Automatic annotation (TrEMBL):
Residues 2-109 form the KilA-N domain. PROSITE patterns: KILA_N. InterPro entries: HTH_APSES_sf (IPR036887), KilA/APSES_HTH (IPR018004), KilA_N (IPR017880). It comes from Hymenobacter fodinae. This is KilA-N domain-containing protein. SMART domains: KilA-N.
Length: 260
Protein backbone atom coordinates (compact mmCIF):
# COMPACT_ATOMS: atom_id res chain seq x y z
CA UNK A 1 0.00 0.00 0.00
CA UNK A 2 1.38 3.41 -0.95
CA UNK A 3 1.79 6.18 1.58
CA UNK A 4 1.09 9.83 0.86
CA UNK A 5 4.19 12.06 1.04
CA UNK A 6 4.51 14.26 4.12
CA UNK A 7 2.83 17.67 3.53
CA UNK A 8 4.40 21.01 4.40
CA UNK A 9 3.01 24.42 5.27
CA UNK A 10 3.35 28.03 4.11
CA UNK A 11 1.56 31.04 5.64
CA UNK A 12 -0.27 28.64 7.90
CA UNK A 13 -1.70 26.63 4.98
CA UNK A 14 -0.83 22.93 4.70
CA UNK A 15 0.31 22.15 1.14
CA UNK A 16 -0.86 18.60 0.51
CA UNK A 17 0.49 16.04 -1.91
CA UNK A 18 -1.36 13.00 -3.15
CA UNK A 19 -0.05 9.44 -2.93
CA UNK A 20 1.80 9.89 -6.21
CA UNK A 21 3.59 13.02 -5.04
CA UNK A 22 1.57 15.52 -7.05
CA UNK A 23 1.20 18.87 -5.29
CA UNK A 24 -2.10 20.60 -4.54
CA UNK A 25 -2.28 23.74 -6.66
CA UNK A 26 -5.40 24.69 -4.72
CA UNK A 27 -3.40 24.76 -1.48
CA UNK A 28 -0.64 26.80 -3.11
CA UNK A 29 -3.25 29.32 -4.23
CA UNK A 30 -4.62 29.56 -0.67
CA UNK A 31 -1.10 29.93 0.73
CA UNK A 32 -0.59 32.90 -1.60
CA UNK A 33 -3.63 34.59 0.01
CA UNK A 34 -6.09 33.39 -2.67
CA UNK A 35 -5.50 36.03 -5.40
CA UNK A 36 -8.72 36.32 -7.42
CA UNK A 37 -7.16 36.25 -10.88
CA UNK A 38 -4.61 33.52 -10.19
CA UNK A 39 -6.68 30.43 -9.45
CA UNK A 40 -5.30 27.11 -10.75
CA UNK A 41 -7.85 27.04 -13.59
CA UNK A 42 -6.71 30.46 -14.82
CA UNK A 43 -3.05 29.42 -14.74
CA UNK A 44 -3.84 26.23 -16.65
CA UNK A 45 -5.67 28.24 -19.31
CA UNK A 46 -2.66 30.47 -20.02
CA UNK A 47 -0.90 29.96 -23.34
CA UNK A 48 2.50 29.71 -21.64
CA UNK A 49 1.16 27.00 -19.33
CA UNK A 50 -0.21 25.03 -22.27
CA UNK A 51 3.22 25.18 -23.90
CA UNK A 52 4.80 24.00 -20.65
CA UNK A 53 2.34 21.09 -20.49
CA UNK A 54 3.16 20.08 -24.05
CA UNK A 55 6.88 19.95 -23.23
CA UNK A 56 6.19 18.09 -20.00
CA UNK A 57 4.20 15.45 -21.85
CA UNK A 58 7.35 14.24 -23.59
CA UNK A 59 9.86 14.88 -20.79
CA UNK A 60 7.97 13.89 -17.64
CA UNK A 61 4.99 11.73 -18.59
CA UNK A 62 7.06 8.64 -19.53
CA UNK A 63 8.44 8.57 -15.99
CA UNK A 64 4.96 8.78 -14.44
CA UNK A 65 3.36 5.92 -16.34
CA UNK A 66 -0.41 6.24 -16.58
CA UNK A 67 -0.63 9.07 -14.04
CA UNK A 68 -1.79 12.40 -15.44
CA UNK A 69 0.43 15.46 -15.00
CA UNK A 70 -2.55 17.47 -13.75
CA UNK A 71 -5.63 15.99 -12.11
CA UNK A 72 -8.56 16.93 -9.93
CA UNK A 73 -9.97 15.36 -6.80
CA UNK A 74 -13.58 15.90 -5.77
CA UNK A 75 -14.93 16.39 -2.28
CA UNK A 76 -14.39 18.73 0.63
CA UNK A 77 -10.64 18.12 0.71
CA UNK A 78 -10.20 17.86 -3.04
CA UNK A 79 -8.67 20.30 -5.48
CA UNK A 80 -6.31 20.45 -8.43
CA UNK A 81 -3.04 18.50 -8.21
CA UNK A 82 -0.02 18.75 -10.50
CA UNK A 83 3.35 17.10 -10.93
CA UNK A 84 6.07 18.75 -8.81
CA UNK A 85 7.82 20.66 -11.61
CA UNK A 86 4.51 22.12 -12.78
CA UNK A 87 3.60 23.02 -9.22
CA UNK A 88 6.85 24.96 -8.90
CA UNK A 89 5.97 26.88 -12.06
CA UNK A 90 2.56 27.73 -10.67
CA UNK A 91 4.08 28.83 -7.34
CA UNK A 92 6.46 31.14 -9.22
CA UNK A 93 3.51 32.71 -11.05
CA UNK A 94 1.67 33.19 -7.78
CA UNK A 95 4.46 34.68 -5.67
CA UNK A 96 8.29 34.82 -5.74
CA UNK A 97 8.33 34.27 -1.96
CA UNK A 98 6.12 31.20 -2.26
CA UNK A 99 8.19 29.87 -5.15
CA UNK A 100 11.44 30.08 -3.16
CA UNK A 101 9.85 28.47 -0.09
CA UNK A 102 8.33 25.59 -2.04
CA UNK A 103 11.53 25.08 -4.02
CA UNK A 104 13.53 24.84 -0.79
CA UNK A 105 11.13 22.30 0.69
CA UNK A 106 11.32 20.13 -2.43
CA UNK A 107 15.12 20.15 -2.32
CA UNK A 108 15.04 19.18 1.37
CA UNK A 109 12.62 16.31 0.74
CA UNK A 110 14.77 14.99 -2.09
CA UNK A 111 17.83 15.06 0.14
CA UNK A 112 15.90 13.30 2.91
CA UNK A 113 14.86 10.51 0.56
CA UNK A 114 18.55 9.84 -0.15
CA UNK A 115 19.56 10.22 3.51
CA UNK A 116 16.66 9.62 5.99
CA UNK A 117 18.81 10.84 8.89
CA UNK A 118 18.24 14.36 7.56
CA UNK A 119 14.59 14.01 8.61
CA UNK A 120 15.71 13.49 12.21
CA UNK A 121 18.12 16.43 11.91
CA UNK A 122 15.28 18.68 10.75
CA UNK A 123 12.99 17.51 13.55
CA UNK A 124 15.74 17.99 16.14
CA UNK A 125 16.39 21.53 14.92
CA UNK A 126 12.68 22.33 15.11
CA UNK A 127 12.48 21.04 18.70
CA UNK A 128 15.52 23.11 19.68
CA UNK A 129 13.89 26.25 18.28
CA UNK A 130 10.96 25.53 20.57
CA UNK A 131 13.19 25.29 23.64
CA UNK A 132 13.41 21.51 24.08
CA UNK A 133 16.42 20.19 26.02
CA UNK A 134 18.63 17.39 24.67
CA UNK A 135 17.01 14.96 27.11
CA UNK A 136 13.49 15.95 26.06
CA UNK A 137 14.38 15.55 22.37
CA UNK A 138 15.75 12.05 22.94
CA UNK A 139 12.68 11.05 24.92
CA UNK A 140 10.35 12.62 22.34
CA UNK A 141 11.88 10.65 19.47
CA UNK A 142 11.62 7.42 21.45
CA UNK A 143 8.06 8.19 22.52
CA UNK A 144 6.82 8.94 19.01
CA UNK A 145 7.83 5.49 17.81
CA UNK A 146 6.10 3.83 20.75
CA UNK A 147 2.99 5.97 20.36
CA UNK A 148 2.81 5.02 16.69
CA UNK A 149 2.95 1.34 17.59
CA UNK A 150 0.22 1.71 20.25
CA UNK A 151 -2.09 3.58 17.87
CA UNK A 152 -1.61 0.83 15.30
CA UNK A 153 -2.41 -1.84 17.89
CA UNK A 154 -5.51 0.05 19.06
CA UNK A 155 -6.78 0.27 15.49
CA UNK A 156 -6.26 -3.46 14.91
CA UNK A 157 -8.06 -4.29 18.14
CA UNK A 158 -11.24 -2.40 17.38
CA UNK A 159 -10.78 1.01 18.99
CA UNK A 160 -13.07 3.36 17.09
CA UNK A 161 -13.74 7.09 16.96
CA UNK A 162 -11.85 10.05 18.40
CA UNK A 163 -13.38 9.38 21.81
CA UNK A 164 -12.02 5.82 21.79
CA UNK A 165 -8.42 6.94 21.28
CA UNK A 166 -8.87 9.85 23.69
CA UNK A 167 -10.15 7.50 26.42
CA UNK A 168 -7.12 5.24 25.97
CA UNK A 169 -4.79 8.24 26.22
CA UNK A 170 -6.51 9.54 29.35
CA UNK A 171 -6.50 6.04 30.85
CA UNK A 172 -2.70 6.18 30.51
CA UNK A 173 -2.30 9.75 31.79
CA UNK A 174 -4.42 9.46 34.92
CA UNK A 175 -2.43 6.81 36.87
CA UNK A 176 0.86 8.45 35.89
CA UNK A 177 0.10 12.12 36.39
CA UNK A 178 -3.13 12.17 38.44
CA UNK A 179 -5.43 13.50 35.76
CA UNK A 180 -6.56 13.47 32.16
CA UNK A 181 -5.07 15.58 29.36
CA UNK A 182 -7.22 18.59 30.33
CA UNK A 183 -6.04 18.34 33.94
CA UNK A 184 -2.39 18.19 32.87
CA UNK A 185 -2.84 21.33 30.75
CA UNK A 186 -4.37 23.11 33.72
CA UNK A 187 -1.59 22.04 36.11
CA UNK A 188 1.08 23.18 33.65
CA UNK A 189 -0.79 26.38 32.67
CA UNK A 190 -0.97 25.30 29.03
CA UNK A 191 -3.37 26.51 26.32
CA UNK A 192 -6.54 24.46 25.88
CA UNK A 193 -5.36 22.71 22.72
CA UNK A 194 -1.69 22.26 23.67
CA UNK A 195 -0.16 18.78 23.36
CA UNK A 196 0.82 17.74 26.92
CA UNK A 197 3.61 15.53 25.57
CA UNK A 198 5.46 18.58 24.28
CA UNK A 199 5.61 20.04 27.79
CA UNK A 200 6.69 16.97 29.77
CA UNK A 201 10.05 16.43 31.46
CA UNK A 202 12.36 13.64 30.33
CA UNK A 203 11.18 11.43 33.21
CA UNK A 204 7.53 12.03 32.36
CA UNK A 205 8.10 11.22 28.71
CA UNK A 206 10.07 8.04 29.46
CA UNK A 207 7.39 6.91 31.93
CA UNK A 208 4.72 7.51 29.31
CA UNK A 209 6.79 5.66 26.70
CA UNK A 210 7.13 2.61 28.94
CA UNK A 211 3.41 2.62 29.82
CA UNK A 212 2.40 2.74 26.15
CA UNK A 213 4.89 0.01 25.25
CA UNK A 214 3.49 -2.27 27.98
CA UNK A 215 -0.08 -1.42 26.97
CA UNK A 216 0.54 -2.37 23.34
CA UNK A 217 2.07 -5.71 24.37
CA UNK A 218 -0.73 -6.41 26.87
CA UNK A 219 -3.54 -5.64 24.40
CA UNK A 220 -2.04 -8.09 21.92
CA UNK A 221 -1.34 -10.74 24.57
CA UNK A 222 -4.85 -10.81 26.08
CA UNK A 223 -6.52 -10.01 22.75
CA UNK A 224 -8.45 -7.06 24.15
CA UNK A 225 -11.16 -5.78 21.84
CA UNK A 226 -12.96 -2.45 21.59
CA UNK A 227 -12.73 0.90 23.32
CA UNK A 228 -13.39 -0.22 26.90
CA UNK A 229 -11.14 -3.28 27.01
CA UNK A 230 -8.22 -1.48 25.35
CA UNK A 231 -8.59 1.51 27.68
CA UNK A 232 -8.53 -0.89 30.63
CA UNK A 233 -5.24 -2.39 29.44
CA UNK A 234 -3.78 1.11 28.98
CA UNK A 235 -4.83 1.95 32.53
CA UNK A 236 -3.35 -1.26 33.94
CA UNK A 237 -0.01 -0.69 32.20
CA UNK A 238 0.16 2.92 33.43
CA UNK A 239 -0.63 1.81 36.99
CA UNK A 240 2.31 -0.62 36.88
CA UNK A 241 4.68 2.13 35.73
CA UNK A 242 3.30 4.57 38.31
CA UNK A 243 3.95 2.07 41.12
CA UNK A 244 7.50 1.56 39.86
CA UNK A 245 8.14 5.33 39.85
CA UNK A 246 6.74 5.75 43.36
CA UNK A 247 8.82 2.82 44.65
CA UNK A 248 11.97 4.24 43.09
CA UNK A 249 11.37 7.69 44.58
CA UNK A 250 10.89 6.16 48.03
CA UNK A 251 14.09 4.09 47.89
CA UNK A 252 16.85 5.48 50.08
CA UNK A 253 14.67 7.88 52.08
CA UNK A 254 15.50 8.02 55.82
CA UNK A 255 13.51 5.51 57.84
CA UNK A 256 12.64 3.33 54.86
CA UNK A 257 14.15 -0.18 54.62
CA UNK A 258 16.36 -1.03 51.66
CA UNK A 259 14.50 -3.06 49.03
CA UNK A 260 15.21 -6.79 49.15
Amino acid sequence: MSTAPIPFAFNGVIIRRDESGRVSLTDLWKAAQSPKKKKPAEWLARESTQELLEMAQSLITPKMGQLELVGSQAGRYGGTYAQQTLALSYAKWLSPELHLAVNQVFFERQAEEKSPDKILDRAEAAYRRRGFTDAQIRARFLGKATRGRLVSVLARHGVRGASGYRNCTNATYKPLWGGEAADIRQKKNLPQKANPREHMSEKELVGLHLAELLAAESIERVQARGNEQCAAECRRAAQSVARMIVSHEQDGKPGLPDPQ
